[in-house]
Structures are given as structure tokens and as C-alpha cells.
Amino acid sequence: MSTPITIDFVSDVVCPWCAIGLKSLETALDKIGADAQVEMFFQPFELNPNMGAEGQDIGEHLHEKYGSTPEQQAQAREAIRARGAALGFEFNMAGRDRIYNTFDAHRLLHWAGENGRQKELKHALLKAYFTDSKDVSDHQVLVDTAASVGLDADTAREVLDTRRYEDEVREREQFFARHGINAVPSVIINQRHLISGGQPPEVFERALREIMAKG
Fold first, then answer.
1. By the 8 A CB rule, do 100 and 55 touch?
2. Residue ranges of the chain with pLDDT lower than 50?
3. What CATH number is given for 3-214 in this structure?
4. What three-state secondary structure class fits 130?
5. Neighbour count for residue 33 (Cβ, 10 Å)
6. Confidence (pTM)
């Protein structure tokens, strides 16, 4: 008999460890298979909520935010690329040189959730940014990405050109912030158990099996 599991995956679409964490989590869920009946929701988190429309050079941004040197950044990029490759996710480090505001991407993900395509759009947005080096704040990129996973392009543009889902996304962001989520990815199981960071698949699998065993 399958054990019902609810997963809130709190993340941003310009967070490399979120891409790694999602692939690791899905690898773990594949291993668990039919033992679990999983319902997953992608919750919004903005790494840089005050980022301007033009975005910012990644090297400059990381230095300002963390004080990291170019050498440290290069080491981190290689570690991320290798982790992604091991999980079947391609990070195109050479092509990606800017980081962008993601609020509109989260509004589109909220809409996609209402139309049963949230997971597909999440994957497509991560690929658009990290693999294809696209500007995921650009409305045309967002519309095209939505259409690529079977969502209606005209409705996607209407969502982006208006203020639809602004309040809903802000409410979700504030809810998780009030509950102590200040870094991503944060994986919340059954609204009670928190797994933080881009953990390896075996860490997710072990934690999920322990939670399932306790009922």
C-alpha cells in the first residue's frame, strides 16, 4: 500500500543548488517508486527580490553578496557542474553570465500549478536559465517556455502583462519566511519535516523512508 506524501519544494529558478536538489529528490523518489504516493508543490523564493530588470553580472553579484574571489567562484562552478552532470542535468557555465529577477517566473509557476503543469514548467525554467543561458525575467522567454510545456501562450502573456498572482506569490513567500525558510532549496515533507540544501539522492531517500515508516 502506498504511503501518501506531500512535498513543498521551496526554491528559485536561478539557484543552481535548487536544480541539483530537485534532480536528487526525483532520483530518490524514483527509487522509492510505488511505495509512496507523492504530491509535490513548487513554492516561491527569491534569492534577489530587489534585483533590477537589467539583472547583474554573476561574478560581480557573487562578490558583492558573499565576498567570493574569481578563483573561489570558478571552483564552485566546477563543483556545481560536476554534481549536475552526475544527476543528468547540464549546467552551461560558459554561457550564463548574468543573474535576473525571478518574481514574474514565480507568478507564471503559480498559474501553471492551477493548470496542472507546474512541475513541467519548473524543469523548463531551470533548463532555460542554466542550460540555455536565457533571461528568465524576459516575458517573451517566459511565454515561450510556458508554451513549450503545453501551456497556452496567450494566457501566459496575459498573466505576465497584468498583476495576476502577485498577491498569491507574495503571500507564499512571506508564509515560508515566517516559518524560518531563509535559504533554498528547502524541502518540506508533510508540512513537518525539513530537508535543507541540494542533498545527494541517498540522503533524500533515507529521510523519506524514515518518514514513511513512522506514518
1. yes
2. none
3. 3.40.30.10
4. helix
5. 8
6. 0.96
